[in-house]
Amino acid sequence: MLHLPYRVILCSASPRRQELLKTILPEFEIRVRDVDESFPGHLEAERIALFLALQKAKAFEEEIKAGELMITADTIVWLKDKALNKPADRNDAIRMLTELSGREHQVYTGVCLFTNEKKKLFFGMTRVFFKSLTPEEIAYYVDQYSPYDKAGSYGAQDFIGMVGVEKIEGGFYNVMGLPMKELYEELKQFDNG
Fold first, then answer.
1. Is pTM, for the whole model, over 0.85?
2. 3-class SS at 150?
């Protein structure tokens, strides 16, 4: 467990991020604000995730107080040179999962740690290999697990991850929304760098 000289605030409504952060920090607060998740079209891969994490940080800059450390994060799925964000509706979720079926993709999570004095941006990257999924498996998952708050329309910890993910190269928790190994190390070093 980390014991930091800050009041830590996780700026995320994601229950998965909250659950993951609890494993390394005994106490933190949650603050949430709606942030536009669009990004410039020329950005690719990790640069999108870093841009969005920074945009989320900027939404809280005016209210951060001395002694507070805020954490923002954004996860994207990168497939065939394009980002798959959160699905708009059922059809969009089915389309995304159909595209991911039988292919490898990358998951990038950008993270911003910031106080009123400094910012640190970093990211995690994981390669995920999906088996070929049947239309029935995809429809079942979308209807039973409502993946509308997840990049790429899936959670690796859900049914689709259990039956559809053949192999993962890199951090599993990054796919869930926080690159835990990197986050732990960056938090430990935050005051030194």
1. yes
2. coil
Instruction: From first to last of the 193 residues of the chain, give the pLDDT tens digit.
Output: 888 999 999 999 999 999 999 999 989 999 999 999 899 999 999 999 999 999 999 999 999 999 999 999 999 999 999 999 899 999 999 999 999 999 999 999 999 999 999 999 999 999 999 999 999 999 999 999 989 999 999 999 999 999 999 999 999 999 999 999 999 999 999 976 5
Give the type of residue at 1: M
Q: Kindly tell me the burial class for residue 74, based on how many C-beta atoms sit within 10 Å of its own C-beta (0-12, 13-18, 19 or more).
A: buried
Q: How far is CA 186 from the centre of its chain?
A: 16
Q: Which domain holds residue 141?
A: 7-189
Q: Is residue 44 part of a domain?
A: yes
Q: Is residue 2 part of a domain?
A: no
Contact residues for 155 (Cβ-Cβ < 8 A; gap 6+): 16, 145, 147, 161, 176
The single residue listed with the structure tokens 């020329």 is: 42
Looking at the structure of the chain, the number of domains it has is 1
Residue 11 lies in a domain: yes
Four-point Cα dihedral 125, 7, 30, 119, nearest 10: -40
What's the CATH number where 95 sits?
3.90.950.10
Residues annotated as catalytic are 74
- Write out the two tokens for 63: 């209210």
